[in-house]
């Protein structure tokens, strides 16, 4: 326990680093995944902008990357990161790798949630003269907002898990803290301190996401 007390500054710094990586990964991956998900929905057969070739291409790319275990993806994208001038370790690399992983997961969640919007809503909007682009970019996200919030909440929790895994390749955060000061130094108290902080973060994210989704769904 004395060792844990001594490491409290490092623990708080690792917590801040985890939140930093998660936040930026959510911004980059969340925005990119939203547009890819919209493209998947819009170009599927029978949708607003049906395009079999484009839908098939995007669908294959998403299905190619999404099943790759994150720990393997970390190793696979490291040379790409270095070729782009991003260090192969540290928080910047963690953001790069997690953004790629989250992008494809988010795109599928967005597509699936948009598919839950009742066709009658779209037909009514078309009958009032709304353009297809307006329906895609404004109506559909608003109608599916509650499920989308829950989906993004799930992704944020997954991002916290990814940052912990990224710590295994010195990408910073609570994962690296637990490995360096806990696992490698045979100090389970330090490891469990990191675990408890991660649990608190996840519980707060889940609580806030559920509360916001309930508020939206009641409208």
TrEMBL record:
InterPro entries: AA_ABC_Transporter_Permease, MetI-like, MetI-like_sf. It is found in: Cell membrane. SUPFAM superfamilies: MetI-like. It is a multi-pass membrane protein. It holds the Pfam family BPD_transp_1. It comes from the Bacteria. Coiled coil: none annotated. Residues 15-209 form the ABC transmembrane type-1 domain. The chain crosses the membrane at residues 20-41, 53-81, 93-110, 144-169, 189-213. Keywords: Cell membrane, Membrane, Transmembrane, Transmembrane helix, Transport. Belongs to the binding-protein-dependent transport system permease family. This is ABC transporter permease.
């Amino acid at each position: 326990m004395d060792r844990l007390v001594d490491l409290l500054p490092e623990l708080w710094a690792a917590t801040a680093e985890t939140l930093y990586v998660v936040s930026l990964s959510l911004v980059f991956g969340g925005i990119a995944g939203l547009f890819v998900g919209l493209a998947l929905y819009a170009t599927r057969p029978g949708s607003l902008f049906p395009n079999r070739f484009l839908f098939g291409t995007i669908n294959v790319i998403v299905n190619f990357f999404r099943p790759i275990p994150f720990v393997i993806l970390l190793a696979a994208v490291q040379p790409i990161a270095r070729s782009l001038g991003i260090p192969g370790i540290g928080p910047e690399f963690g953001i790069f790798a997690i953004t790629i992983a989250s992008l494809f997961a988010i795109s599928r969640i967005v597509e699936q949630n948009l598919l839950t919007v009742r066709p009658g809503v779209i037909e009514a909007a078309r009958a009032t003269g709304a353009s297809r682009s307006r329906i895609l970019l404004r109506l559909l996200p608003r109608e599916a907002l509650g499920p989308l919030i829950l989906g993004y909440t799930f992704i944020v929790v997954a991002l916290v898990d990814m940052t912990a895994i990224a710590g295994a390749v010195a990408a910073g955060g609570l994962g690296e803290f637990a490995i360096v000061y806990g696992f490698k130094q045979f100090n389970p108290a330090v490891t469990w301190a990191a675990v408890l902080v991660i649990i608190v973060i996840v519980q707060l994210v889940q609580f806030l996401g559920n509360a916001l989704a309930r508020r939206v769904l009641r409208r």
